[in-house]
Design goal:
The structure is a homodimer. By secondary structure, chain A is α/β, with parallel strands linked by helices. Helices cover about 40% and strands about 20% of the residues of chain A. Chain A folds into 3 domains: about 210 residues, 2-Layer Sandwich (BirA Bifunctional Protein, domain 2); about 130 residues, BirA Bifunctional Protein, domain 2; about 60 residues. Chain A has an 8-stranded mixed β-sheet with strand order 1-5-6-11-10-9-7-8, with helices on both faces. The longest helix of chain A is centred in the first third of the chain and has 20 residues. Chains A and B meet through helix 1, strand 1, strand 2, strand 3 and strand 4 of A and helix 1, strand 1, strand 2, strand 3 and strand 4 of B.
Amino acid sequence: MALNKKPATGMKDILPAEMQIRDYVIGVIKDTYGRFGFTSIETPAVENIENLTSRQGGENEKLIFKILKRGEKLDLETARTESDLVDGGLRYDLTVPLVRFYSNNAAQLPSPFKALQMGNVWRAERPQRGRYRQFMQCDIDILGEASNLAEIELILATTTTISRLGFKNFQIRINDRRILKAMAAYAGFAAEDYDSVFITLDKMDKIGRDGVRAELEAAGYASEVCEKYMALFEAVEQADNGVAYLREKLADLLDGEVMDSFTEILDSVEATKADTFELVFDPALVRGMSYYTGPIFEIVMPEFGSSCGGGGRYDGMVEKFTGSSVPACGFSIGFERIVMLLMESGFQVPDRPEKTAFLIEKGVSGQALRDVIARAQEERAKGRQVLVVRMNKNKKFQKEQLTAEGYTEFQEFYKDPLKA
Amino acid sequence: MALNKKPATGMKDILPAEMQIRDYVIGVIKDTYGRFGFTSIETPAVENIENLTSRQGGENEKLIFKILKRGEKLDLETARTESDLVDGGLRYDLTVPLVRFYSNNAAQLPSPFKALQMGNVWRAERPQRGRYRQFMQCDIDILGEASNLAEIELILATTTTISRLGFKNFQIRINDRRILKAMAAYAGFAAEDYDSVFITLDKMDKIGRDGVRAELEAAGYASEVCEKYMALFEAVEQADNGVAYLREKLADLLDGEVMDSFTEILDSVEATKADTFELVFDPALVRGMSYYTGPIFEIVMPEFGSSCGGGGRYDGMVEKFTGSSVPACGFSIGFERIVMLLMESGFQVPDRPEKTAFLIEKGVSGQALRDVIARAQEERAKGRQVLVVRMNKNKKFQKEQLTAEGYTEFQEFYKDPLKA
């Protein structure tokens, strides 16, 4: 039986042209984050299944690729449920593994610890165009820094990186989970309803205030609560300074220090940022993950309708592993979307080395072959790229193909030296 | 319940010090193989289970991490065997995925196609010190090149890379599966016994000729066959030129062209190689995988008892996917072992950037904080590495820690400027 030459459903092969861009983007990311003092770490693709199903991952926990137990541990006879059969799963993000990593290795890590992770994650989503079940994530996180210096540095590092990749006119939208909750409380929603309310609020960009209000009312929330909620969003939008407006309006519901610190993030980034992006307070920004506890942020690119990365503060997660609390904050870049945008724009990797091809006629062997190879080795030792290949019968076509691959110089070697 | 902070059994977290070396090694590998015209590609970690269990992978097929079916496809009620439960698995090497990749994408690839793959593979081996269930492999392969130019280029590219990483005095051992078979035939073994005979022969390094002979006899092979077999190995060892000796001795069993081509590989590499390694014909070299069809090679390092990489020609594998034959040859570097040897030798990554830390006293905020951050951003824009952190109460200890991390310059910022 012939083997199956297609990749596993929803996954993709990466061809040389895309890999070249990916490698370039990875290089820029590592270099830029390095300048901010982030150091690379790596965790295994496989995590213990109990960590992946601990409700840290929200909806992603429904999309786990689970790994069958092996050997004696697998007992098909007595297995009743899925969980009897599996002991691991492929990570669906890099945040849960990072926090496990930190909990496991804190004694050997500096404090604060600034981590850079670039690695694949897996989600068994319904296959659809442009979205794959394996994709690269690129996260920076700061663990052990309670002050807003973490947020400021994360936003500057991320935007500096994206700017170096050539993107302009993008937005960083910022909000705070505590503002989000205080606004819902102000309108009169009950605390246990916040998560459901925020799922609807998250659609603000697409359906607008009227749409959000209609959906909330349809879900059964009191009309006057919904009206008060949307009126507050409208007032913030119309205010000269939305943050200052809310500071006053929510004074009874929200600690003044939260607003001071939030304002300092806005002011510090605004004062030191590049002009490639705009920093925007967006009171309707939700960020899906329930683990966020403070400021949250999102990258929006004009070339791309939806989010192109995001992050926030998640101060409670380390405690779930170790029992003791450690402040934590992270920012993730939408690596795959950035690569896609670069591919679509016809981006060419800068400073590619000059490429030479040595074409060797079939009969060239013995000392003559050794001479050609020695020459190629000399050129390579100087840093040049030299491809050594046999000459095809249709040499013209072969050279056209090589030209398309970026070879600009050709040297031909014949059995009969007079032919050369 | 507290979450589990350990990595999945047999897998490991990679800390910053090791990651720095890994990134350096990856950089040297990509740069060096690039000079030889190899281009990077990537395949998904997950492969269709039927491709992983098609007997291309030998013993590795027993070590697959298998992935549970999802949704409606998973039916615990009717499942009788493991194979009813799974539809994918984590790749155990990069060769099977490469051949699938080539079969799937050949129309978009140059010919010959020179691929570089660096990626993780997974094997559920018994956990043991220094060996992990997830590890990085680094393979180069040439598909579509029938001549020995493939072997010559693969050996030169691999040895050039290893030499650039600072290794000296290593060996490349080389043999040919056809020589291996002809020697067994010459001694009188039946073709169906070759695989079993070669498993014993593979121990030559450890148990010597007498040990191999004893084990073969114990397995029931005729004493005179075993004697003739070992005598042939002894004769090759004592001959001035082992290859020439076998060419004559095995003339009836082995095509002269095989030996001519093999000799040309030896001569070409010998004539153009660096003096960091020795090229050695080893008639007892087996290489476990049954898919090899021609020359096979292995890297042996004095620092390391066993093999540190290997490869060979596997001309039959593409046909299993596409039905049409494509010559193929590859060489894999033992990436994890190389990293381990560098770590153990106290290797320091060259040309690391100078690192500065800005220590900011707790009370510094507002304009003063913005000024510090602006200064850090200026330095980073020049390519310098600047860490911005809050000053700890125990500043002396903090600076010692940072010094240990490689920070050589410190700037301190106080709320009261007179303190600075």
